Structures are given as structure tokens and as C-alpha cells.
């Protein structure tokens, strides 16, 4: 039996990843900090759910103890938990920035560090970090501080690949563009959602928007033996953002 952990796994991209890995035969464990009702829905599919605030190291240590009651080996760790606020630089809000930093970057560090012994025990495992195309320079109004945290995720991915390769641990990242989730369209009217969709369609050469499953399938590949020779890489999945494809090199 192979075990997978997905942080922020109760909804959105994390939920799609958890469901996909579960369907592919992994015993999947999600760490979640909200949406308990959605977590219960996953339990009905055989997915194990553990309440955990990844930005709190003590909470992560507690989650590790719960996982150790189940297994001493983790074959796949997906650091998906994330938080974002639209915040133009001129309206800098220290509290919001600190929250994003604690979840998006510190949380990834805490989870990876605490679960590293279990990843080593697997004798060949895979860490996949969910970054963002904002972290590689894709510009969007109000995303500067979010982009800083995701750029950190990308740098950390490459450094961890360098440091953990000696244990047979591969470390890669996926950098999504705009994905339709309850975080990106929740609370908006249908008219607002359609305007958002059209806006992002017009920014891609494929003229389409992304779904959580699009990211889940990439994660599934990176977790598998088919990707055994891939580490330290960032796969951008953004429909072919026109501004990224046409800028001068």
C-alpha cells in the first residue's frame, strides 16, 4: 500500500488531487483547516481526514502523530494548502501579507520538515508543491505579495530537490494559472463569474480556463514512476498565457 498526503485537501485543487490519487490506489490522507463538511464527504470515499493548520507548527506536529498511527511511510506529499488576498502594493496590509506568508511558505516548510522521516522511510518518494504562475512573473493586478510567497515556493522546490535527492526523494512544483475553484469564483454572481472567465480566456492561447482536475492529473504524473527521472522542475499549467509566451528572452 502506498500512502499520499495532500494539504488543503478538502476543497478546490487539493480536493481534486486527493480524489485522483485515491482513485489511483493511494491510501490518501488530507490535512485540512476548514470545510469540515467537505472533508466528511471525502471520508465516504475512503480518504482519511485530519484537521491541521499548516501555519502552526504544533498543529503540524500533532497531525504527524495522527499519521504515524496509520503508517510509518509516506510515498507522496502534496503541499497544496494556500491562501491569497488581492492587495495592490500601495494598499499594503501587513496582517494579510503575514497570513499568506505563514500558510503558503512557512506551512510548506513545517509540513515537509515534520514528514521528512516518513518520506525517507518510503525508500523513494515524491514531493509536489503547488505554486502559481504568479511566482514566475505572470503579472496581475493586486497579486504582488501573493507572488512573493509563490516565488518562495518555487525556490524552495529547487533547493529541496538538491538537498533531498540523496534520499531518493524527488521534488517538483506545479504552477497553475487561473483555476475555477470556490476560492476564485465563490461568492460572485453568475455575471461576475462569466466576466472573469472571459477575461482569463482572452489571456491564453488556448482560450480556455483551468479546472482543478487539470492540476490533479499533472500531480498524478509527477507522483508516479513515469516521472522517476524528473526533479527540481516547475510545470506551468496556465493555458498558454499570451504575455508569458510573447515576452522577449
UniProtKB/TrEMBL annotation:
A Pfam family recorded for this sequence: adh_short_C2
Gene3D superfamilies, per database record: NAD(P)-binding Rossmann-like Domain
GO molecular function, one term: quinone binding
GO biological process, one term: fatty acid biosynthetic process
Swiss-Prot/TrEMBL keywords: Oxidoreductase
Family the entry assigns: Belongs to the short-chain dehydrogenases/reductases (SDR) family.
Protein name per the record: 3-ketoacyl-ACP reductase
Organism whose genome encodes this protein: Stygiolobus caldivivus
Gene name in the database record: fabG_2
Amino acid at each position: 500500500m502506498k500512502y499520499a498526503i495532500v494539504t488543503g485537501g478538502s476543497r478546490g485543487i487539493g480536493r481534486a488531487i486527493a480524489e485522483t490519487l485515491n482513485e489511483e490506489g493511494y491510501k490518501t490522507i488530507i490535512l485540512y483547516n476548514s470545510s469540515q463538511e467537505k472533508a466528511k464527504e471525502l471520508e465516504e470515499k475512503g480518504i482519511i481526514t485530519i484537521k491541521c493548520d499548516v501555519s502552526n507548527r504544533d498543529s503540524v506536529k500533532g497531525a504527524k502523530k495522527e499519521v504515524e498511527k496509520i503508517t510509518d511511510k509516506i510515498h507522496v506529499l502534496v503541499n497544496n494548502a494556500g491562501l491569497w488576498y488581492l492587495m495592490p502594493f500601495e494598499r499594503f496590509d501587513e496582517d494579510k501579507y503575514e497570513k499568506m506568508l505563514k500558510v503558503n511558505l512557512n506551512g510548506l516548510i513545517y509540513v515537509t520538515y515534520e514528514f521528512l522521516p516518513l518520506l525517507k522511510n518510503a525508500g523513494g518518494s515524491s514531493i509536489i508543491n503547488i505554486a502559481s504562475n504568479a511566482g514566475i512573473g505572470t503579472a496581475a493586478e493586486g497579486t504582488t505579495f501573493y507572488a512573493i510567497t509563490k516565488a518562495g515556493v518555487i525556490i524552495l522546490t529547487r533547493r529541496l530537490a538538491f538537498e533531498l535527492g540523496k534520499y531518493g526523494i524527488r521534488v517538483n512544483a506545479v504552477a497553475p494559472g487561473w483555476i475555477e475553484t470556490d476560492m476564485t469564483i465563490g461568492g460572485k454572481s453568475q455575471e461576475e463569474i462569466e466576466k472573469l472567465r472571459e477575461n482569463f480566456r482572452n489571456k491564453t492561447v488556448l482560450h480556455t480556463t483551468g479546472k482543478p482536475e487539470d492540476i490533479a492529473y499533472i500531480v498524478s504524473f509527477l507522483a508516479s514512476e513515469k516521472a522517476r527521472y524528473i526533479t527540481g522542475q516547475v510545470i506551468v499549467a496556465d493555458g498558454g498565457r499570451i504575455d508569458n509566451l510573447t515576452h522577449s528572452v
